[in-house]
Amino acid sequence: MNGLIDIHSHILPGFDDGPENIEQSIEAARRYKDIGVNCVVATPHRVGGTRWSPFPAAIIAAAEKTEAALNDAGVSLQILPGMEIACPENIDADFLSAQFLSLGHSGYFLIEFPFTSAITDTIRNVTGRAPGRKQPGIIVAHPERCTLFQDNGATLRQAVAGGMLAQVNIASLFGEFGAKAAATAFDFLRLGLVHFLATDSHARGNRMPPDPRQWERLVELLGQDVVETACMVNPGRMLRGEKVPPITLPDETRRNTQPPGHNRNIVERLINIFNK
Predict the structure, then answer these.
(1) Cα–Cα distance between 260 and 253 in angstroms, integer?
(2) Dihedral sign (CA 218, 224, 227, 228)
(3) pLDDT tens, 236-254?
(4) What's the domain count of the chain?
(5) Residue 27 is part of a domain; what is its CATH number?
(6) For a surface tag, which of 126, 150, 192, 274 has the fewest beta carbons within 10 Å of its beta carbon?
């Protein structure tokens, strides 16, 4: 695959818990190129009231500087500016546009909901707004890792029905964030509640972009058409400000795809044999 787009990546050096220096960014960029990624949206954390509160202008300048450094190192990778925004109290479209960076200036904002607490009122306020009010373009970052969504799948269903989009981490599908996150990620895929897969790479340690072997595993798991839709077609639609449909798993993939370590019982195996 070529022309893939990663919409959630901490690749800018010196921001948050991403790469400490440009050398780590270059190493991550080489990994991206090895699996066919040509464009990355840089999404440093934006957490109000903390030291992780970069100004939009600083992120835009850093994205341009990092892309130039990558080119100088012989790694041609487009870097677009964005943010991973800790869910603010006011999630109104005009407020978001005035305060934060959307992904690649697309008008879609990547929002990280709390990992442990439930703030369903925020979702209700956004999805239940009166007709005619400007609807913010919101992408929920890795809902499979958040208790709010893990313990109540109806919450994400409500969010998606109200116009929000959802991005699942590729590493979650491999079980790298625990069995519960993996099971939740697969459930959301089967239910048609996911629009994007992304790396959420932090460009160091065990949070690097996938290598070719891991990418092949992802394709074997979900199928090439699904991966292309999740990592190229839908991100392209998003960056153009177009409507983005959810990922649809083929029937066979939906039946057979299981989280890592999941042992199907005898009834499930018999049903699978019967279906075949």
Answers:
(1) 15
(2) positive
(3) 999 999 999 999 998 777 6
(4) 1
(5) 3.20.20.140
(6) 274
